[in-house]
Amino acid sequence: MENVRVVVVDDSPLSVSVISGILEDNGFQVVGSAGCLEEVKEVIAETRPNLVTMDMTMPGTDGLECTRAVHEIDRDIRVIVISSMMDEEIVSQAKRNRVSGYLQKPVDDEDLIAVVKRVMQAEELFGVLNSEFFDVFKDALRDGQNKLTKTLITYEEEYLCESEYTADGIAVMIGIIGEFPGKMLISLSNATAHVLTATVLRREPKNSEEIIETMAEFANIVAGNACSSLNKRNRAYGLRVAPPSVLSGENMKITPLNYPTYTAIGESVFGKILLNIGFKRGELDAWT
Fold it and tell me: Residue 36, exposed/middle/buried by CB under 10 A (0-12, 13-18, 19+)?
C-alpha cells in the first residue's frame, strides 16, 4: 500500500479538504484535486494517480462522465465514488462505468480507508497474477503432456494476441472463475489431436467424438493444474475452472477477448499445439 497517489474530485472545497485529510492522515499521497470535467482531465494527465475519489454531482457534468474521462487517459486508474446519493440505479450505473467502490457522504474515516485498501490491494494482487500466469500455464501444458504421453513440448513462439486468427481442427475453451476471471484456449489440428489421443488412450480412437472428449479432458487437466498452482501461490486468487467448450472445424475465426491474452505455440512430436490464456480485472467487493 506504499506510494498510492490519489486525486480527489469534488466541487465542494469542504469535501476536498475532509477527504484529503483522511487520506493523508493514513499515509496516502493526495497529488491533486478537481471540481469540473476540464480540471479532471488536466490533473489526471499531469499527475497520473493510482486512485481517484469521485463526487457524483458537479456543475455541467457528473461522476460517471468524469470517470470515463479518467479511463480514457489511463484505464488502470481505480475510481471510488463518494456521493450523498446512493441508490440501486446509481450504483448499477457506477459499476457499468468501471467504478471500483462506492461510499455515501458523510464519509466515515474507517470506511474510506477500508474501501481504498480493498481496491488497491486487489490491484496489486492482479499485478502479481498478471506477471506469473503465462509461465504457469505453459508449465502446466508441458507437464500435462509429459505425464500423459511421456513426451516433451517446447515453445517456439510467444506473443501478445491482439487480432483475430484462424484455427483448423479442434479448439477447446475453458472459462476460469475467481477474483479475476479469465479464459484458456488450446487449439490443435485434427491430425495432431488424433495422434495425441491415440497416445493417451494407447489405442486408436473409436471416432471423432472420442478425440474431442479426450482433448476436452486434456485441456481441463492443464487449466485445473495451472489454477491449482496459482492458488498455492496466493489463496486470494480463488481460481476454479468451468466445463470445457469445444469447437471443431475448418477456418474457425477466433476473436480476441476484450482484455489482453497471450499465446504460446508449442512444438511436440504430435505437431503444433497453441495455448492462449488471459485474465481480466474482476468485480471488486468494495461497495459500502
Answer: middle
Give dist(CA 56, CA 253) in Å, integer: 42
Q: Tell me the pTM.
A: 0.71
Is the pLDDT score of 284 beyond 60? Answer: no
Left if phi > 0, otherwise alpha if psi is -120 to 50, otherwise beta: which for 207?
beta
Task: List the Cα angle 229/186/201 in 5-degree steps.
Answer: 90
Cβ atoms of 242 and 174 within 8 Å: the answer is yes
| Closest to 176 in 3D by CA, of 251, 122, 120, 229 | 229
Amino acid letter at 80? I
Pairing of strands 240-241, 78-83: unpaired
Instruction: Give the closest residue to 281 by CA, choosing from 240, 237, 245.
Output: 237
Distance of alpha carbon 272 from its chain centroid, rounded? 27
